[in-house]
Specification:
Layout: H1 7-37, E1 40-41, E2 44-45, H2 58-83, H3 100-112, H4 119-129, H5 139-151, E3 156-170, E4 176-186, E5 206-209, H6 212-215, E6 216-220, H7 231-253
Antiparallel strand pairs: 1-2, 3-4, 3-5, 3-6
Length: 254
């Protein structure tokens, strides 16, 4: 029997990479403009400028990347199931479960209906791909992101993570007032379409101490899968995980 052809799933992954590149460009520009806005001039921070905002379609670019990665798994699962003799089923999806045992039980039920891939592929899914919360490839998180994107806008949030950035507020004469704030940690979600104000500069501005380019990150928002994790690096890891899962499925099916 001929080897399985993952042309379709690979196209989905390539399309996801296109969106990831776009997301990376958005992140670079967003961070550059905000770091520039907060760069000291004559040892003073020009802080009265409006904060740089996310482009209108930042969330949809992120959602499209996530969805294409998720769909690549569905396409591949259809292919390996049909190679095992299963007929086409529009409701068949790549399987996910709350833990390994519950997923195994679900797959056993589908096996009795003759709608699954071979035993070898199922073992590879359970033992190597591990599409449950504790799985090494973190594909359950991808699944949850895709579900979230179907119901809510995935809104990135700006954050300083361990940057140790110190802001010293200025007084009415433009001199350091002695009032300092250290920024370290998650800052919360911006309003959609209105960008993120990182902190209150006070009425007279502030001086910034530290490298904002290293400290400023774009992360997943409160209550979302991967909460507080950097968006671009997380999606990049999920991209690599999907490629690994496709390779495992293909090897097991051939």
């Amino acid at each position: 029997m001929a080897n399985v052809d993952f042309y379709g799933p690979q196209l989905k992954v390539e399309r996801a990479e296109h969106h990831i590149h776009a997301l990376e460009a958005i992140a670079r520009d967003y961070l550059r403009r905000n770091a520039q806005r907060m760069r000291p001039k004559r040892n003073r921070l020009v802080s009265r400028k409006e904060p740089a905002t996310f482009p209108r379609h930042t969330s949809t670019t992120l959602g499209d990347a996530i969805h294409n990665l998720r769909v690549a798994l569905d396409h591949a699962y259809h292919i390996v199931a049909e190679k095992n003799g299963a007929t086409f089923n529009p409701y068949r999806r790549f399987p996910f479960g709350g833990d390994k045992e519950s997923l195994k039980g679900s797959l056993n039920g589908y096996q009795k209906q003759g709608t699954t891939p071979s035993n070898k592929v199922i073992r590879a899914i359970l033992d190597e791909i591990q599409p449950y919360p504790s799985g090494a490839l973190n594909l359950y998180g991808l699944h949850q992101l895709d579900i979230t994107d179907k119901h809510l806008v995935l809104i990135p949030t700006s954050a300083f993570l361990g940057g140790g950035i110190t802001i010293e507020l200025l007084d009415a004469s433009g001199l350091p007032s002695g009032r300092k704030v250290t920024i370290d940690g998650h800052l919360g979600m911006p309003e959609p379409g209105k960008g993120q104000e990182f902190f209150n500069f006070g009425p007279h501005g502030a001086v910034c101490r530290g490298d904002l380019r290293e400290a400023l990150k774009i992360c997943f928002g409160d209550g979302q899968p991967f909460e507080g994790k950097e968006v671009v690096s997380t999606v990049r890891k999920l991209h690599a995980s999907v490629l690994r899962a496709l390779s495992i499925l293909q090897d097991a099916a051939n």
